[in-house]
Amino acid sequence: MEIRLKYVVEDVDRHDNVRLYYRRKGFPKVRLPGPIGSPTFLAAYRAAEEHAKQGSNLTSKVSAVKPGSIRWLTIQYYQSAMFKELNTRTQIVRRGILERFCQNKDDGDKPYRLLMPRNLRTRRDEMMDLPEAANGMLKAVRQLYKFAVRYDHHHDNPAAKVEYLRSNNPDGFHAWTLEEIEQFEARHPVGTKARLAMALLLYLGQRRSDLVLFGKQHVRDGWLTLTQFKGRDKKPVTLQLPVIPVLQKVIDASPCGDLTFLVTEFKRPFTSNGFGNWFRKRCDEADLPQCSAHGLRKAASYRMAELGCTDFEIMAITGHTTLKEVTRYTKAASQKKRADSAMRKVSGEQKQS
Predict the structure, then answer these.
(1) For the whole model, what pTM was predicted?
(2) Which option is the CATH number for 60-166: 1.10.150.130, 2.40.50.320, 3.90.220.20, 3.30.1380.10?
(3) What phi, psi does 238 have (nearest 5°)?
(4) Radius of gyration of the chain measured on its C-alpha atoms
(5) Residue 239, strand partner residues
(6) Could you tell me if 137 and 164 are in contact, meaning their C-beta atoms sit under 8 angstroms apart?
(7) For 116-156, what is each residue's pLDDT tens digit?
(8) In this structure, is the dihedral angle defined by the CA atoms of residues 47, 48, 49 and 52, taken in order, positive or negative?
(9) CA distance 258 to 285
């Protein structure tokens, strides 16, 4: 079946390679990954559509923008290389945060040079019940004023002087325990889509943004090859992961899609957020409201640490490029192993005395 989408065009380069673009009048041309209709293509197309819609809303307001206002500064930022070098998804998220910042109490109409750290602390404290959202707001404003300083619009970055709020969960997402995994598996046996999702998350240790793209075409000779979605535009991380027998057994016994292992009820690939919401319901069905898809990535790292895997071995699976994040995942397992070792030495000493 031929798929036709608005604003999608094909260009042929000097080597006769066909390239796909999202081209809409008044907006920069956006490269789309092929082939047409693939999950990565559709995800990029939706992101480009949303970006264009956001740009249309922005353009309609430009004539009413006050020169020297915070909103004026955001428009300059959107047009800069600093902003355009961000991946499309990050652009959409950051634009949304800054637009909400401008809309709150008409702050966007106020002079950007008069924004003080105390103003941002007041705004931050108003969001204390949502610390992650408050920190996201601060991060976006920091980047806005980083642009202002770099491009000589301002001499100072007031947001850089404001402290982030402490997260309600400083250790991040809840890591599944062995008992919780067994409880989920008891509710969702082998052969169900939920069990397939669990196995893929647990035995590959990847983010849900990668998981929704995996399909049989990515596996060859027992190895799954992927380039992680996060950071793919700036610092791509390509991994080759073994499909261990227990995972292969679940895949073989499960209903899978043509392009991806996991598909919606309409036989289409999941989006990352869509999968997260769907898996959240499967956790609730297993009476595990504290558990999430991301928590299984953490649990996979924890299990590898408990089995004695080194940090670098764990990084080879998760794709982390620094030890900081892996250490955060595995510190509880490391503490448990050290405590066990210490008590064994104490027990041995007591036996000798």
Answers:
(1) 0.62
(2) 1.10.150.130
(3) -105, 130
(4) 24
(5) 226
(6) no
(7) 999 999 999 999 988 889 999 999 999 999 999 999 999 99
(8) positive
(9) 27
